[in-house]
Amino acid sequence: MHQTNQSEENETCVRLEASASFGIDPSSELPRLLDVISDVCNEYGTEFGYNSISNTFPSEPSKVVPGALGRILVIDVHGIATGVNVDENEFISEMKIGISQQIDDCLYSGLLSQPVLLAFQSAATDNTPDSIIEKEVNDYGLRDGLDASFYTTHDNKDDDNTFIPSSHIKMDGAIIETVGSPGQTHFDTSSILVFDNLLDDTLRKRLLNVVNGISEDGEDTSRDSDGPNPSRWVRGGLMDVVDNDSDGSEEDDGPCWGLTEEAIVDICFHDHPAINEFEAKLVQLFQDFIVSRLPEAVLGSCVSPLTANAPCHGDSFDFHIDADPMQVPPSPWADVFGRYPNRSKGKPRFVSVLLYLNHLWNTDEWGAPTKFLDPPTQECYEVFPKPGRCLVMDQDISHTVVAPNEECGKRPRYSLVWKLILHPKSVGQDMTDLSCGRGKLWPTPQLIGSAIQH
Known about the structure:
alpha+beta; five-stranded mixed sheet
């Protein structure tokens, strides 16, 4: 006797109905989107209707999740037993994947302008756009803020230079489209910030111990001159770019020494007071924003939010970018926030934070700067390692590590990298100014290459 499973029952009794759309042009994009869903449903033998769909266009910006795209299609699911979680239903999950893949095809072919958040819900549910967006954000951890409770409080006097950069560089200038203002453009540049007082030497040492798998307050008995510890480091160990066939660059899966898989899990997911303390400092540095680690739902599991590297003499590297919100792959992140130029007004900003962790670094003899490229002019700017120095850079800026000079021997240049997202706290917030009220104390930006041409 054949026993019908849950998936087979769903296939014969489930009926889908588009009940509402938000932020989707009803004259052009909505009909295409409904046709795509109809085609997928036909393949699955599932009934799909949309005769009573309501449409809100344009939609109001989300006040709960500033920066959210707000393009939502609500699909009511009929035929699911009362009390069953629609999101956990195997058949519905399979359908959603199939529909999402077809939507991606429409995006790449230009039939749709931006991704769409599909909200499957039981027919009796009455969700608002904000509640739908908030649920997706919470389900995938898209906006989980760093914990500031570990920060050692000080009085933040005006003469405190902890949060004042030593230098501020702007490069890679370009005229780009203005998000939310069709037909308008503005001049944009990427930024590099160099902080020499953000990380004290005690915290630097503790972070280096964490990277090397040593007790934070312990003594590292290994010698830098012998090269990275092979029990903690491995050649080609870095796994934090989407395309693993790329360039072998500083944060790439290439010839550079990277942490083992177990070590990456350790620094990312195990509790380390030193990491907690520095992340709390980052929250204070960027106090006008919600600071979050790069979620897995943006670029996938191959890109870890924290990583470390140890380039040595003889290594070779190419220029690369860490990420660009304009080029994120199909993902829950893209469905909620869309694709847009980094630093766009009111949209999450992608930045990376790099710490130089060596106890000692002889810049004149050993070299190994982080080099930044201005693609329009091919001009470069170099920032040299210094114990405890911190770089903050836009993730869409082209950069590379330069291997240490021969005089350095086998000694690695250790660095620890955070991939972060700065979320706006309010609708339409200016995302270009990172000074967070300290601008009068910040140095005048140094313009490089195409940033001068405007």
